[in-house]
Amino acid sequence: MLEALDYDSKKSDDASDEYCTQVSRAIRTMSKLRCAPRDSNFGAVVLLFLVVPTFVVGIYLHGQKITYFLRPLWESPPRPFKDIPHYYDENVSMENLCKLHGWGVRDVPRRVFDAVLFSNELDILAIRWHELYPYVSEFVLLESNSTFTGLQKPFFFAENRGQFEFVEPRLNYGTVGGRFVKGENPFVEESYQRVALDHLIRASGIGDDDLLIMSDVDEIPSGHTINLLRWCDDIPEKLHLRLRNYLYSFEFLLDNKSWRASVHRYRAGKTRYAHYRQTDDILSDSGWHCSFCFRYISEFVFKMKAYSHVDRVRFAYYLNPSRIQDVICRGADLYDMLPEEYTFKEIVGKLGPIPHTYSAVHLPAYLLQNFDKYKYLLPGNCKREHG
């Protein structure tokens, strides 16, 4: 009997131990179940209040860089130009120069019309017109009291016309009132002004087979390029000019890919003034494009707010004068943008500031003849005035 009771007691103890073990396991399981939602909620809070805002801010600050860097994934490069080799030496006759290009030579040179839309680039305009003066028959300039972005501006050329008396006998100057439409795409106003310039060109007396230069003020064809084209027969009816592409001054040579400048053999009723690609033919090494080449910091600010790409001014501090001065001297980008290229190789190759160049060989003659006045455009002179 006692042995039976002892046996039953052991069974009871074993059952009790088993019961306790099961209860302990259940408690641990419930504890885990209670903790799991807490861990899940904590992760959601971190995602909501830390990761998501960080991602949004990153996209806001660097979205342009991301999209520009990934551009090769969704956009193919434009078809390549057909580069025409450019031959020139001052000691070679025009007849031989024309033959080197595969063209004949004329008995009488064509008339040349140089037409520009003017904003406020007084120094660059002077350099341009002195470079082209010996070869241009008529200078055509149109000025508006509105920027492309619809801001009111003075007629800068009219106020400073006295500086350009040397071209007065050949000058066809016109003005056009701005439309000042709020919220409009800047390219609409730009197109409107280019159409007005087209009318002024026709009113200037241009005729069939005259040469018409279509380029912005800061896209300067070299004089010998225009002389070549006016003397040679059989040149293309439309011809783009490949220009050396400078930024801020002739100290920062970006590349030789500036192509928008063009020369046309005029055809009444067909030729229209434009600033986009119009042919595949391009003449190599035909001049200089000096973008944002201003004397005063205030002129940088004005252009950043005035031209068609005003959307690139994403933050107000971009217009800070001390920042602009620092960017100029480093050869960096005013808008903190990545290079606008179509392959990863070209994008990576252009990352960072533009290297300094100390060559001032083959620059516009008037610039070098008046180096004291235009010193800020020459290598080693990046500091700007605050006028």
TrEMBL record:
The keyword Manganese does not apply. It comes from Musa balbisiana. It comes from the Eukaryota. It holds the Pfam family Glyco_transf_17. The chain crosses the membrane at residues 42-61. This is Beta-1,4-mannosyl-glycoprotein 4-beta-N-acetylglucosaminyltransferase. GO terms for molecular function: beta-1,4-mannosylglycoprotein 4-beta-N-acetylglucosaminyltransferase activity. The lineage of its organism: Eukaryota, Viridiplantae, Streptophyta, Embryophyta, Tracheophyta. Keywords: Membrane, Transmembrane, Transmembrane helix. GO terms for cellular component: membrane. InterPro entries: Glyco_trans_17. GO terms for biological process: N-acetylglucosamine metabolic process.
